[in-house]
Amino acid sequence: MAIATRRKPNSDVALFSLCPFWTSGNNHPEPHAHKSSKTVSSVARSLLPPRRRLRLDPSSYLYFPYEPGTQVRSAVLLKNTRKSHVAFKFQTTAPKSCYMRPPGGILAPGESLIATVFKFVEQPENTEKSSEQKNKVKFKIMSLKVKEEVDYVPELFDEQKDLVTVERILRVVFVDPVRSSPALEKLKRQLAEADAALEARKKPPTEAGPRVVAEGLVIDEWKERREKYLARQQVQAVDSV
To answer: Hey, what's the signal peptide range on this chain (predicted)?
Structure first.
């Protein structure tokens, strides 16, 4: 079975130029750049290393079981390492064959979650094309500092695109689903944790108030106990006569 290697393509720039949704900002030069302090500050920020808001595990690759003709899953842990709330968003170069759950959201300070990534693995036509397929698909994770009361909507990243940080660009690596390996075992653990967290979110929250036993019918526990108490008092009164 041919398993993908971690070869880097000759140029990421060529790939990005084919994916317009990865292009951000205004690509046209300012006619009077020397008169615009905003342009100068933007250039200065671009030269500085990005300030990471999220810690990713794995940090560079998404590992998928290599099972051609099926939909497979990968997982990545995202943890907010900042003291502020951070919004995150996924993008991919293959939106027709890949999707993420959740595709975006907001993490409180110190909060973490495991995102699940789904991908359909096409049948390779030949060995060379199979290798190209495994290195072609990429995922980008972006982050944005937000206020605590803000609700997540994807448009946040368009409205504040100058403040968006590209956390990581993750490349796809396929692993043999039969042969045990550290990457495969770690993937299985993360997927199990993600599934458990999803099931926990599906369960209705435990409420201390009235119990709903049917649509439109609510039992008031205090009233129920009072009626039982009065019934016992009546029985005792009858017995004492």
So the answer is: none
Tell me the pairing of strands 54-57 and 104-107: unpaired
More confident residue, 43 or 230: 230
Mean pLDDT of the chain: 77
Q: How far apart are CA 113 and CA 131, in angstroms?
A: 31
Q: How many residues does the chain have?
A: 241
pLDDT of residue 116: 95
User: Residues 202, 34: contact at Cβ < 8 Å?
Assistant: no
Distance CA 165, CA 27 (A): 17
- Among 99, 88, 81, smallest CA distance to 152 is for 88
Q: How confident is the model at residue 201 (pLDDT cuts 50, 70, 90)?
A: confident
- Angle in degrees, CA 81, 140, 107, rounded to 5: 30
| Structural domains of the chain ordered from first start | 12-24+51-202 (2.60.40.10)
Kind plus residue range of the DSSP H or E element containing 200: helix 182-202
